[in-house]
Write a structure and sequence with these properties.
Spore Coat Polysaccharide Biosynthesis Protein SpsA, Chain A; two-stranded antiparallel ribbon; 7 helices; about 25% helix; about 25% strand; globular
């Protein structure tokens, strides 16, 4: 089995640590969505987890999250910082917004030398999703990949959501189009676009598989981004744009893997009881132990 790393995007943490949805308790013993993702990754054979966080929250993160993983999976931290820029570039004094998800992933360049899977820290992806992508790399694949979910398994009952609608050809990703106001109707799914949707369409929920080759692209393209947009205070170097550029320029192929898991997250405050209920169902069906990382 190959070494595979899980890279968790958690740099969105703010100063009011306990109130953030990434760290909201959704399990019966205070478990977070991150805990369930790490547990599933361990079961799927991942050997390491790297958390992208802000440096000032390292101690809190260790105490409240990662101490429980001791002896179960290797844990590393990468820090996304505004002044972590290539030689010759400086962060504008007035800028407070992070540089975006592409820059966040680039912050882990010194920690990863194997295939790795990137996820959001506040999303639940389901164990099947981790198994599918782990099997892909364990069977010798060396291309980029994305786990696609069925649209109707990612919607909220409490309002419209934004998802990346995918076009796929022969299991290869062609485009990901951010589509907002997606919600169930009596006839299918409505959105802000004039298209018909029945709910079976594949969507990206930001579960991507990469090889270390990605870091070379990010270094090159981040410099290009800074040259063009580095003086703007709210510009972002985003990983979907990077991947789209690589696909359109025929530099990379992204293989689309399918998951029948139900994605869920806390988009609206009303979603939390639903998420807690879904986790409890999984516990009742013996998918998870009652105490996730109990001794």
């Amino acid at each position: 089995m190959k070494n595979i790393t899980l890279l968790v995007m958690a740099a969105g943490m703010g100063s009011r640590y306990g109130g953030l949805k990434q760290l909201d308790a959704i399990g019966p013993n205070g478990e977070t969505i991150i805990d369930y993702s790490v547990y599933d990754a361990i079961k799927a054979g991942f050997s390491k987890v790297v958390f992208i966080i802000r440096r000032e929250f390292e101690n809190d993160f260790i105490n409240k999250i990662t101490n429980k993983y001791a002896g179960k999976i290797q844990v590393e931290f990468a820090f996304q910082e505004l002044d972590a820029l290539p030689n010759g570039f400086e962060c504008p004094d007035e800028r407070i917004k992070p540089w975006g998800t592409g820059h966040a992933i680039l912050s882990a360049i010194d920690l990863i030398n194997e295939p790795f899977v990137v996820i959001n820290g506040d999303d639940y992806y389901g164990r099947e999703s981790f198994m599918v992508i782990a099997d892909y790399y364990n069977n010798g694949a060396n291309t980029f990949s994305m786990v696609a979910f069925r649209l109707d398994k990612t919607l909220s009952s409490f309002g419209g959501v934004t998802r990346g609608l995918c076009t796929v050809n022969n299991d290869k990703l062609e485009t990901v189009i951010e589509t907002s106001e997606l919600q169930k109707t009596d006839y299918g799914v409505s959105s802000n676009r004039n298209i018909e949707l029945n709910g079976t369409e594949p969507v990206s929920m930001n579960m991507w598989g990469y090889t270390p080759k990605l870091f070379n692209y990010l270094q090159e393209m981040f410099v290009e981004f800074l040259m063009g947009e580095g003086s703007e205070l709210k510009s972002e170097f985003l990983i979907p744009s990077v991947i789209n550029d690589l696909i359109q320029s025929n530099r990379e192929v992204v293989i689309v893997l399918r998951s029948e898991s139900s994605w869920f997250g806390v988009t609206y405050k009303e979603d939390k009881p639903f998420v807690q209920g879904e986790i409890q169902k999984l516990i009742d069906n013996d998918n998870y132990p009652y105490e996730l990382f109990g001794n």
